[in-house]
Design a protein that fits this description.
Elements (H helix, E strand, L loop, with lengths): L10 H17 L3 H16 L9 E2 L10 E6 L2 E6 L6
Antiparallel strand pairs: 1-2, 2-3
């Protein structure tokens, strides 16, 4: 049976996603593209519910004690932490 993890967004991550949407919609004047990109990003992030360890672990010394990983979602880097205690 697969384990399911809970995804918790930081306020900054949520704001970043809003900024991506706003930039594409209002600056580039592409509402449909903004919607599609945000949906692709949300879908990619939601896939972390199962097996979030599949992406590369960051090897930076400031992250040494944490399980910080990176994935790509529609040309954007998604940095996240896998916390075994919060499932």
């Amino acid at each position: 049976m697969n384990r399911k993890y809970k995804i918790t967004w930081s306020p900054n991550a949520y704001k970043d996603l809003q900024n991506i949407y706003s930039y594409i919609k209002y600056f580039l004047k592409e509402k449909n593209i903004a919607n599609k990109i945000v949906q692709k990003i949300l879908y990619s992030i939601s896939s972390l519910d199962y097996f979030p360890e599949r992406y590369i672990k960051l090897k930076d010394s400031k992250f040494e004690a944490k399980n910080i990983r990176k994935m790509y979602a529609y040309k954007y880097n998604i940095i996240y932490e896998v916390n075994e205690k919060v499932r």
